[in-house]
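Progress note, sequence design subtask.
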């Protein structure tokens, strides 16, 4: 029997960059939970944090308020999500201009999902047709840093890997500077996508999106919506843990950290975490990867 010379995470020295995604809160209690998560994760000095944007601008004001507070009260670089759904170009441009005026220099540009689940996506009359069109439009407004989405397991609307890759290339050619992937649970899945992108001559940073599993049923729902597959072995690991939240968190942290370790072994040095406004799992995984506190929240004047 061969015993590894070192524990699994002994050779990870924190030489990575991390970023975190949050969603705008609906209630005062959710606001408190979000800000607690931001305060917990801010000392890890993320490259940026992003705030999602609801279908059809349904969270426009809450997204803007969250991004503005992050810019105002922390040393974090805030990235604002922006979509094409149910809005004219003028309306989308107005939101982007508001962000620029508020000091936001980074946009996560996405096509967005239809407001009614299960309906086919239809461009809004007078709106941006898709994410590539949105990126091109944003480029005409201000010199934003622009991040777009990528789909290691193919976007459900693409149909084939070739169509999906062509769509991804259009977004990069339009001026996107980075891509963050939809979540996945197999490192090989990410590596195959990365290789396909390189073979197509697309030269852009691709950051894996990591979803720590805080809620198994919710994760299954998310996966069915975006076309991500959940391996059978992972399903089995969570069997019997519905009434044991502490044990479930330990398993979730282990699965997330092991995925990141495999990605690290394949040369990945930047990770994006979908936090669902909860810090514990993302923080634990970052800790296992060697990331340690260095920064924090701005000191408020007395």
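Output:
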């Amino acid at each position: 029997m061969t015993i590894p010379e070192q524990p699994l995470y002994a050779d990870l020295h924190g030489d990575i960059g991390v970023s975190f995604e949050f969603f705008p809160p609906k209630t005062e209690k959710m606001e408190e939970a979000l800000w607690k998560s931001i305060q917990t994760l801010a000392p890890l000095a993320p490259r940026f944090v992003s705030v999602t944007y609801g279908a059809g601008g349904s969270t426009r004001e809450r997204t803007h308020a969250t991004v503005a507070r992050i810019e105002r009260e922390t040393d974090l670089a805030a990235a604002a999500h922006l979509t094409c759904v149910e809005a004219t170009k003028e309306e989308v441009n107005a939101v982007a201009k508001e962000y620029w005026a508020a000091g936001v220099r980074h946009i996560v540009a996405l096509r967005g999902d239809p407001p009614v689940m299960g309906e086919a996506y239809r461009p809004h009359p007078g709106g941006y047709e898709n994410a590539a069109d949105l990126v091109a439009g944003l480029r005409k407004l201000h010199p934003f840093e622009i991040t777009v989405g990528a789909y290691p397991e193919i976007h459900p609307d693409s149909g084939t890997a070739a169509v999906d890759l062509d769509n991804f290339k259009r977004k990069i050619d339009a001026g996107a500077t980075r891509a963050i992937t939809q979540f996945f649970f197999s490192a090989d899945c990410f590596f195959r996508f990365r290789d396909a992108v390189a073979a197509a001559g697309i030269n852009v940073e691709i950051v894996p999106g990591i979803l720590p599993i805080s809620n198994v049923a919710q994760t299954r729902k998310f996966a069915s919506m975006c076309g991500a597959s959940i391996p059978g072995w992972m399903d089995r690991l969570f069997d019997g843990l519905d009434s044991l939240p502490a044990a479930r968190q330990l398993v979730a942290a282990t699965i997330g950290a092991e995925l990141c370790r495999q990605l690290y072994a394949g040369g990945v040095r930047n990770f994006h975490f979908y936090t669902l406004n909860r810090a514990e799992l993302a923080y634990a995984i970052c800790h296992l990867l060697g990331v340690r506190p260095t920064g924090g929240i701005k000191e408020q004047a007395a």
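Residues 17-288 form a domain with the TIM Barrel fold (CATH 3.20.20.220). Work on this subtask will continue into the next period as scheduled.
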